[in-house]
């Protein structure tokens, strides 16, 4: 196949971009180094986030796309429409839950407030004494590595996947592969997460390390994806270390426990003190978790940008190069919307929402 | 100590093993194939690594999920497989 577009990276963002471009009529080659990235390491949550209007527009559009795709996805994608409960620990966080409901309502996103008693009925495993929660029923989860493969498969013969590592992007847009070959196409999409900074050191992307842990199968322990409302505060620290309560019920009955954030390390080792902090936070909310058997813990690197928004659009000075990187911890959620925007920009089509907030910026400074 | 035995129950059946045996060994004594659990897809799973890494020997022991290879048999222990 003679590709018109090369996508570097077969994670969730690269896969979604490849499919959107194939659906726009392009012949697409995906180059994947098979080094593993955030798609395989993350939680696979599909969650509308509303910290700023651009994040809300992207995640809202993406969540709607995931819901539309869900009925066609196979069981291997492990899609679950579990919804999210944003758990409020006190009255102050409950007030934030109310403000969040208003913001979501203004954009047509369904949610409802649960008081303490309703929260206790919805999730009996949570500790008593919590103030309540905001339920967002349209959120869900997937198993992202399989979802990425599934997205690529939807492209049929229009998408070809080649396992190859790109060593360099030359000034004219030619790719130099690790095996010595060179290849190019009319348009190149960089969608390889944290690895993008190796090929383009000018990108303002930093690794943000996270720990996760998964338990044995305990079906019915929790029903919704549970996130503390304090998550928003801890997730946005620009430096240092933080943990937040975030637990998902996987369709297998396993519980996936997050989350931690650390800057300035690229060491993938599981760090016992960080894992312990994260689990203590989870046990504070779900006391029974301490009695359950964990079977695996691992880490991953989120590709973080200074303002928390992905870079979507034409690279300001590199020939042929388009960017779909910097999705941090929200890449599984926002892959379909990112792909929609990028494919529209690359093909000159009209996008469903404004691309300006994600335009690659700060690269000329 | 070498002659001592303990009696435990695996899925309700009494099984006698040498004192100091692991539950993984007792599964083998009791059932031949040593199956500990079933996968999500329903496939039988048995102890594989024997050193607490593969997690394929998860069983319910006295009401708690444990690794059979990392648990020493005790008198009167009740082990349930197949979950």
Structural commentary:
The complex is a heterodimer of chains A (365) and B (83). Chain A has helices at 12-23, 38-41, 53-69, 91-106, 116-122, 144-153, 196-199, 231-235, 272-285, 331-347, and strands at 5-8, 28-32, 45-46, 84-88, 112-115, 132-136, 140-141, 159-163, 166-169, 175-177, 182-183, 187-190, 206-217, 225-228, 241-249, 254-263, 294-304, 311-314, 321-325. Chain A contains 10 helices and 19 strands. In chain A, the strands form 4 sheets. In chain A, strands 5-6-4-14-15-16-13-17 form an 8-stranded mixed beta sheet, sandwiched between helices. Chain A has a 6-stranded mixed beta sheet with strand order 8-2-1-12-19-18, covered by helices on one side. Chain A has a 3-stranded antiparallel beta sheet with strand order 9-10-11, with no helix packed on it. With 365 residues, chain A is of the alpha/beta class. Chain B is mainly β. The radius of gyration of chain B is 12 Å and the shape is globular. Chain B contains 1 helix and 7 strands; from the N terminus they run ββαβββββ. The relative contact order of chain B is 0.28. In chain B, the strands form 2 sheets. Chain B has a 5-stranded mixed beta sheet with strand order 2-1-7-5-6, with helices on one face. Chain A binds chain B through residues 216-218, 252, 291-293, 295-296, and chain B through 40, 55, 58, 64-67, 83.
Keywords:
heterodimer; A: alpha/beta; eight-stranded mixed beta sheet; six-stranded mixed beta sheet; 19 strands; 29% helix; B: 83 residues; five-stranded mixed beta sheet; two-stranded antiparallel ribbon; 1 helix; 33% strand; globular
SSE layout and pairing:
The complex is a heterodimer of chains A (365) and B (83).
Chain A: E1 5-8, H1 12-23, E2 28-32, H2 38-41, E3 45-46, H3 53-69, E4 84-88, H4 91-106, E5 112-115, H5 116-122, E6 132-136, E7 140-141, H6 144-153, E8 159-163, E9 166-169, E10 175-177, E11 182-183, E12 187-190, H7 196-199, E13 206-217, E14 225-228, H8 231-235, E15 241-249, E16 254-263, H9 272-285, E17 294-304, E18 311-314, E19 321-325, H10 331-347
Parallel strand pairs in A: 1-2, 1-12, 2-8, 4-14, 12-19
Antiparallel strand pairs in A: 3-7, 4-6, 5-6, 9-10, 10-11, 13-16, 13-17, 14-15, 15-16, 18-19
Helix pairs in contact in A: 1-6, 1-10, 3-10
Chain B: E1 5-10, E2 13-18, H1 23-31, E3 37-38, E4 44-45, E5 58-61, E6 64-67, E7 78-80
Parallel strand pairs in B: 1-7
Antiparallel strand pairs in B: 1-2, 3-4, 5-6, 5-7
């Amino acid at each position: 196949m003679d590709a018109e577009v090369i996508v570097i990276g077969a994670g969730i963002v690269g896969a979604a971009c490849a499919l959107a471009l194939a659906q726009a009529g392009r012949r697409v080659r995906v180059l994947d180094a098979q080094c593993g990235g955030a798609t395989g390491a993350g939680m696979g949550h599909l969650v509308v986030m509303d910290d700023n209007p651009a994040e809300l527009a992207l995640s809202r559009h993406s969540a709607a796309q995931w819901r539309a795709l869900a009925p066609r996805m196979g069981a291997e994608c492990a899609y679950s429409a579990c919804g999210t409960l944003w758990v409020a620990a006190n009255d102050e966080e409950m007030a934030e839950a109310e403000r969040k409901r208003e913001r979501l309502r203004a954009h047509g996103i369904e949610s409802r407030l649960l008081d303490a008693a309703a929260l206790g009925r919805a999730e009996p495993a949570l500790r008593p004494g919590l103030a309540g929660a905001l339920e967002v029923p349209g959120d869900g989860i997937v198993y992202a590595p399989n979802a990425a493969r599934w997205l690529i498969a939807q492209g049929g013969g229009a998408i070809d996947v080649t396992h190859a590592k790109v060593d360099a992007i030359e000034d004219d847009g030619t790719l130099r592969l690790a095996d010595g070959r060179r290849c190019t196409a009319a348009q190149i999409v960089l969608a390889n997460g944290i690895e993008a900074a190796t090929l383009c050191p000018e990108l303002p992307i930093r690794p943000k390390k996270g720990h996760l842990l998964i338990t044995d199968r305990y079906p019915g322990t929790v029903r919704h994806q549970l996130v503390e409302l304090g998550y928003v505060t801890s997730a946005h620290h620009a430096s240092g270390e933080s943990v937040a309560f975030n637990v998902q019920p996987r369709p297998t009955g396993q519980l996936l426990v997050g989350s931690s954030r650390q800057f300035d390390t690229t060491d993938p080792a599981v760090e016992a003190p960080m894992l312990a902090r994260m689990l203590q936070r989870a046990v504070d909310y779900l006391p029974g978790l301490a009695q359950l058997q964990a079977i695996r813990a691992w880490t991953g690197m989120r590709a973080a940008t200074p303002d928390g928004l992905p870079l979507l659009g034409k690279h300001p000075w590199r020939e042929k190069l388009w960017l779909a990187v910097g999705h941090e911890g929200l890449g599984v959620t926002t892959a379909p919307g990112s792909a929609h925007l990028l494919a529209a920009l690359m093909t000159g089509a009209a996008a469903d929402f404004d691309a300006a907030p994600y335009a690659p910026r700060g690269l000329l400074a | 100590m070498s002659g001592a035995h303990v009696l435990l129950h695996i899925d309700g059946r009494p099984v006698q093993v040498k004192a100091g045996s692991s539950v993984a060994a007792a599964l083998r004594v009791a059932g031949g194939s040593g199956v500990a659990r079933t996968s999500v897809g329903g496939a039988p799973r048995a102890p594989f690594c024997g050193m607490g890494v593969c997690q394929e020997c998860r069983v319910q022991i006295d009401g708690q999920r444990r690794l059979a290879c990392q648990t020493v048999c005790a008198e009167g222990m009740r082990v349930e497989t197949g979950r």
